[in-house]
Amino acid sequence: MRTFLLQTAAALMLVAAPAAGQDLASKATQIRDQALADSTAWNVVESLTTEVGPRPVGSPSMERARDWGVAKLRSLGFENVHVEAFTTSAWSRGSESAEVVGPWPQRLNILGLGNSSPTPTGGLTAPIVLFHTYREMLAQPPGSLAGRIAVVTERMTRTQDGSGYGGINANRTQGPTEAAKRGALAYLVRSLSTDDTRLPHAGSSTAAGIPAAALSTPDAELLEHMAARGQPVVVKLNLASSLNPAAPAWNVVGEIRGSATPEEIVLIGGHLDSWDPGTGAIDDGAGVAIGVAAARLAGQGRPKRTLRVVMWGSEEQSGSGAAYAAAHIAEISKMALVSESDSGAGLIWSISLPPGSDGAPPMKAFLGAIGPLKVIVSRTPPEEGGSDIRGLIDGGAPFVDFHQDVSRYFDLHHSADDTLDKIEPKELAQNVAVWASFLYTVANSDIDFRKAAKAAK
């Protein structure tokens, strides 16, 4: 009799497993379709950019963004909504100008780089030395740029995956320090951008002790034409800025608590702060909106695991990810998955799942649901994750990469053109559909990405 009962139980389990997988797939598909018709993400990013606008860390607008985030999460039904305070270094922009004063006077369009030092009162005037590539400047010996303004005009390549940006990121982030090592009085860099407008692009750099700014792409080319004529080109630069080494900042958090294993966390987020020229729509209002809308849809009917949304408060100037990881180090072992959306609102075209997991029933259910959305499943494991979850990843949390089409993203980000009108609602909805289907399958299954990765080795 006992043998018969065991055999019956085993048979029932075999029947139940496929049925559970079918239910998961059916619900993931249903959520996908809901997301494609849902306006929550658009409403969130419209609200953020309209009611708050640009959100530099350390500014009064960032305080408004904090309060906006709390109110928005509560209004959308999230639980345990709270603010986690930390301090971080905050650079603030002041008045800025640049002009060629000889031999052919013309105004230049610039934006000071984060952590730039201010110029002396009254500005700084000096001849430029122009390099067409960053490597050309690095080849110069110490002291060779003394008394001059170093200018790097290397162009960025437009790519779907963002590798063009990664390839020259050091031009902005490390350029001022390398120029200072060679004696330069100041540093100007062609904006890390693929646009052709006179709108320069902001961004952080290392604190090098010299003034540093980004040139609009046409103005970088203007200096190339002037330098090619063989006469000394003299530029006057005026940058006023300030640095608060311990500015108040906040991560805003909301949850949909799990019903079966609430201690297990499925985390998604985007960064709430932004640079100041535009309204922070694509960088990263869109990511905040995608995370909020996707978690809300995935949390219908109370998931088994806890869904947690984080709006990180200082990604552009750094600090929020490290603060969050330090505050939640004891939870990392219980984080089933961590994720971040921070590449605008372009279509998701490729995804990288944790190693060894694509054949698991929950991931099969997810992949089946997103089949009509034309998303490629990469065989390459995830590599990036996102800067705000880097500390969690380093602590052992599994993560994913959902690659968005950023062909146009670098025309816009960190510039005055980063505004709501650049977001295509249907593309935003596709992002939500992919994320919501994924979050649902992870939060309503017992998939263990850590075990899958070990088994795949």
Give the structure's gist in a few sentences.
This protein is an alpha/beta fold and about 450 residues long. It is built from 14 helices and 14 strands.
Break the fold down into its secondary structure elements and pairings.
Blueprint: H1 2-37, H2 40-51, H3 60-75, E1 79-102, E2 106-108, E3 110-112, E4 124-131, H4 134-138, E5 149-152, H5 163-173, H6 175-181, E6 186-190, E7 212-215, H7 217-227, E8 234-256, E9 261-271, H8 281-298, E10 305-312, H9 320-327, E11 335-340, E12 348-352, H10 361-370, E13 376-377, H11 390-394, E14 401-404, H12 409-412, H13 425-443, H14 449-456
Provide an overview of this structure.
- The chain is of the alpha/beta class and 457 residues long.
- It has 2 domains: 273 residues, Aminopeptidase (3-Layer(aba) Sandwich), CATH 3.40.630; 129 residues, Glucose Oxidase, domain 1, CATH 3.50.30.
- 37% of the residues lie in helices and 24% in strands.
- It has 14 helices and 14 strands.
- Strands 1, 2, 3, 4, 5, 6, 7, 8, 9, 10 and 11 form an 11-stranded mixed β-sheet that branches.
- Strand 12, helix 10 and strand 13 form a beta-alpha-beta unit.
- Helix 10 runs antiparallel to helix 13.
- The longest helix is centred in the first third of the chain and has 36 residues.
- The two termini are 42 Å apart.
- The N terminus is likely disordered.
